[in-house]
C-alpha cells in the first residue's frame, strides 16, 4: 500500500522540492499537518506547489548550525508532504493540510530566484516509509500508552482514549510524536528514528525524561 496513488517508492517522488523550515514542526509518513500560511514567500511556495505536484518538504532549522535569521542552516532530514486540503481566508492567508509521504535527506540546497528555499533531496534511505504500517508488530504499544497516561496525568490533560484504543500502532506512534510538545532536537530524533519501533522508543524515553524534569527529581539507577 502506498501513501498516495502514484507515490509507491523513491523513484516516484520529485528530486527537487520546496522546503518549509519550521522549528518544532514534525511531519511523518501518512500523518496530517495543518498549516496557517501568511508570509508572502510561503504563499508563493504554496501557489507554485499547487501548480505542480503539490509537494512541500517540512524541515526544521538547526539553530546551532549557523546560517542567517532569514536562511538558517537546515537539518539534513525532513519529510515530504502533499497538499491534500486547501482554503483561502478573507485576509489572504492559506489554510492547508499536508499528508506525509516519505522522509528525505537533503543532498544540496539550490540557488534559486524564488523567495522560498528549494533543495535537491533523496528518499533512498527511507524506502520503508512508502509501506503503510511497516513494523507495527515490533512496537511496545503498552510502553507507549503508559508513557502517555503518565504524561496526561502529570499535566492534567484530556485525551480521546477511545480513539487511541482504536488507532493502529503506526497512526498512534506517529500522531503522538507529531503532537508532542517537545523541543526541536527531540522532534528531530523522532523523525530520524530508523523504524517505527525505534521511534516509539524515542517517544517513550523523551516523555519519561520530561516527566522527571517536571517532577524536579533526579533519575535513579536501578
From TrEMBL:
User: SUPFAM superfamilies per the record?
Assistant: PUA domain-like
Classification via Pfam families: LON_substr_bdg
Q: Which PROSITE patterns match?
A: LON_N (PS51787)
Q: Give a GO molecular function annotation for the protein.
A: peptidase activity
Known InterPro entries for this protein?
A: Lon_prtase_N, Lon_prtase_N_sf, PUA-like_sf
Alphabetized, the UniProt keywords read: Hydrolase, Protease
User: Where do the Lon N-terminal domain residues begin and end?
Assistant: 17-211
Q: Report the record's Gene Ontology biological process terms.
A: proteolysis
* PANTHER family according to UniProt: ATP-DEPENDENT PROTEASE LA (LON) DOMAIN PROTEIN
Identify this protein by name: ATP-dependent protease
- Which taxonomic lineage does the organism of this UniProt entry have? Bacteria, Pseudomonadati, Pseudomonadota, Alphaproteobacteria, Hyphomicrobiales
Amino acid at each position: 500500500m502506498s501513501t498516495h496513488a502514484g507515490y509507491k517508492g523513491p523513484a516516484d517522488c520529485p528530486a527537487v522540492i520546496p522546503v518549509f523550515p519550521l522549528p518544532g514542526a514534525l511531519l511523518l509518513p501518512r500523518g496530517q499537518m495543518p498549516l496557517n500560511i501568511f508570509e508572502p514567500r510561503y504563499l508563493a511556495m504554496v501557489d507554485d506547489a499547487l501548480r505542480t505536484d503539490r509537494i512541500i518538504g517540512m524541515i526544521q532549522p538547526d539553530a546551532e548550525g549557523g546560517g542567517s535569521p532569514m536562511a538558517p542552516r537546515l537539518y539534513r532530514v525532513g519529510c515530504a508532504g502533499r497538499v491534500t486540503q486547501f482554503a483561502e481566508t478573507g485576509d489572504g492567508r492559506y489554510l492547508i493540510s499536508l499528508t506525509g509521504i516519505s522522509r528525505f535527506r537533503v543532498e544540496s540546497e539550490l540557488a534559486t530566484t524564488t523567495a522560498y528555499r528549494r533543495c535537491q533531496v533523496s528518499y533512498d534511505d527511507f524506502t520503508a516509509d512508502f509501506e503503510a504500517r511497516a513494523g507495527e508488530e515490533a512496537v511496545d504499544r503498552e510502553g507507549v500508552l503508559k508513557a502517555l497516561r503518565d504524561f496526561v496525568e502529570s499535566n492534567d490533560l484530556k485525551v480521546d482514549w477511545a480513539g487511541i484504543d482504536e488507532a493502529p500502532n503506526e497512526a498512534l506512534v506517529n500522531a503522538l510524536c507529531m503532537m508532542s510538545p517537545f523541543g526541536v532536537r527531540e522532534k528531530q530524533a523522532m523523525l530520524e528514528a530508523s523504524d517505527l519501533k525505534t521511534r516509539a522508543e524515542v517517544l517513550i524515553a523523551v516523555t519519561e525524561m520530561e516527566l522527571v524534569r517536571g517532577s524536579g527529581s533526579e533519575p535513579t539507577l536501578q
